Amino acid sequence: MKKHILTAATAVFLILPLASHAADETKKKSAFTTADTDGDGKVSLSEYVAAMQGKLDDTAARARFAELDKDKNGSLSRSEFSTATGAKKSGKKMKEAN
Ligand SMILES: [Ca+2]
Ligand SMILES: [Ca+2]
């Protein structure tokens, strides 16, 4: 009995980091796709507000959108969107590339 429990615990230990890493990757990849409900490759303001429902209220989502829409074309490209979801620290690098 005890041995069985130990094995299960070990398995969880081994699987957990892998699983959470995989989940993280999937999340990153699909956040943009999920927000882009019409699939045109851009996230519009209304798509963004809808995607942020439950996280940000309407006003906050709009303010955030304006911040993220660096070229002010009214929609978020994949790279504009990704600055919101994780790559905050690579902001300097991206500036260099421009
Ligand atoms: Ca779209
Ligand atoms: Ca834009």
Please describe the topology of this protein.
Elements: H1 2-35, E1 43-44, H2 45-51, H3 58-68, E2 75-76, H4 78-85, H5 91-97
Antiparallel strand pairs: 1-2
The protein binds calcium ion (CA) (2 copies).
One calcium ion binds at residues 36, 38, 40, 42-44, 47.
Describe the fold and architecture.
- With 98 residues, the chain is mainly alpha-helical.
- It has a single domain (2-97), classed as Recoverin, domain 1.
- Helix content is 68%, strand content 4%.
- The protein is built from 5 helices and 2 strands.
- The chain has a two-stranded antiparallel ribbon.
- The longest helix is centred in the first third of the chain and has 34 residues, at 2-35.
- The radius of gyration is 19 Å and the shape is elongated.
- The chain binds calcium ion (2 copies).
- One calcium ion binds at residues 36, 38, 40, 42-44, 47.
CATH superfamily: EF-hand
Bound molecules: calcium ion
Going across the biggest sheet, name each strand in turn. Answer: 1-2
User: Main beta sheet: strand number and arrangement?
Assistant: 2 strands, antiparallel
- The CATH class turns out to be Mainly Alpha
Summed up, what is this model?
This protein has about 100 residues and is mainly alpha-helical. The protein is built from five helices and two strands; from the N terminus they run αβααβαα.
Index terms:
binds calcium ion; 98 residues; two-stranded antiparallel sheet
